[in-house]
Amino acid sequence: MALYTRETLPALLTQAAVGPSQVFLLFGERYLCQNALEQLEQVLLQGSGGTVHPIDGDQEDGTATLAKLRSFSLLPGRQVYRVTDTRLFLSKQVAKSIWDRACKAHADAKPEQAGRALRALLESGGLAQVPDNDLETMAAAEWQQCFGFARPDGDLSWTRNSLSADRTTSHGSGGATTPSDPGEMLAAILATGIPQNNTLILLTEEVDKRKKLFKLLKDEQTVVDLSVEGGSGAKAQKEQKAVLQELVRQTLAEQNKTIAPGLTDLLFERVGFHPVAVVMELRKVMAYIGERRQITRDDLDLLVGRTRQEALFELTTALSRRDLEQALVIADRLQENGIHPLAVVATLRNFARGLLLCRALLEQPMVRYEPAMTAAAFQQTCLPLLKEREQWKKELGGHPYALFMQFKTASLFPLPVLSSWLQLLLRAELRLKGSPIAAPTILQHLILSMLSR
Q1: CA distances from 453 to 126, 286, 419, 432 (A)
Q2: Cα–Cα–Cα angle for 419, 423, 424, nearest 5°?
Q3: Of the given ranges (59-63, 244-248, 263-267), which has the lowest mean pLDDT?
Q4: Are 18 and 44 in contact (CB under 8 A)?
Q5: Predicted confidence (pLDDT) per residue in 243-258, tens digit
Q6: CB-based contact 186:67 (threshold 8 Å)
Q7: Could you tell me the pTM of the whole model?
Q8: Domain covering 312-452 assigned CATH 1.20.272.10 in the classification
């Protein structure tokens, strides 16, 4: 029928009240999906009523779900079968985004979310039925083959801890008992028809849009894209801010409250792009002020602390600028917010390796790099010569402007300094793993040593 977005969600709700589809797929940012789901279920059950049957996609028996969907229920009203974290659209095409989500949940000290993402990762690589699968010891070649991206550097022992609890339970019998692809089975059932009062709602954070089932649902049913562009680019930041502003507007309207001018930006700065956290923090402040209508700066200072985790790339940016004070502040905040010191070291190691490679290449005359050249000149002059080096194809396969900025940063640091950084990082890692010295002290010493050279 149609592909809806956040902006066209009201039109979807209006259409669902008149003539709803029998299958809805909602994908994208988790809180936005849950929020849209609540509104959709309210519309579907109004009038004749009905029942919502929640199904956990991680534990789902796909055959049983499809059997219920095509059966007539003895219960009155509409029967809504809601599958959260459905596995129908997983593939290694979305494995990298799932892995990034798992890493973020681990960095945020949210083991349940990390474990859920890792289970989805295994499913996307066809490994969900391997009970003793260990991501930590998986060979680089096997990782690339299963997930479609290179095995990350650094310590992956945390993945075992996140998966260990789940290994004692079933991942759902759907994959083990369903003889054919569950997506194809759903398509076949929709072709033959299902009872009019039965509705299936599928929720997931990532989808492989190349799958036949996705195209089928987009053409014949209803798909809602609630994804939000990630990253720190201007376009992504603008989209994220628009999402948060709309959530603030909706939340304030619940109790007819207002917020003093300029405080929304302060709220976003403290919380970051975490839609559910923005809503919860705002509701907490609204409950505190009681009958008073406007939220003030004092209210935010009292009740909303700095919960935003400094992105690791901000630390590398501070190092690039040789901003010692800012680098030390960010490193402390990362640890305060639960980022493991070894994760900080791993990030810095990847950063140093990239700069070391760029510095070594730009010192070769045939590259023809000049510190004063523009991005356009770099792309026309240097980039074609760099692309000829097959051994560095992966490292030099990024966006041209990102490569230009990396080379520009590398030109600011002598080759011996960048080489010494790797030695300092190795010593810091060994100290973190086997020294009684406090982790904050080790990281402070590391940053001071890197920038003093």
Answers
A1: 47, 50, 11, 22
A2: 110
A3: 59-63
A4: no
A5: 999 999 999 999 999 9
A6: no
A7: 0.59
A8: yes
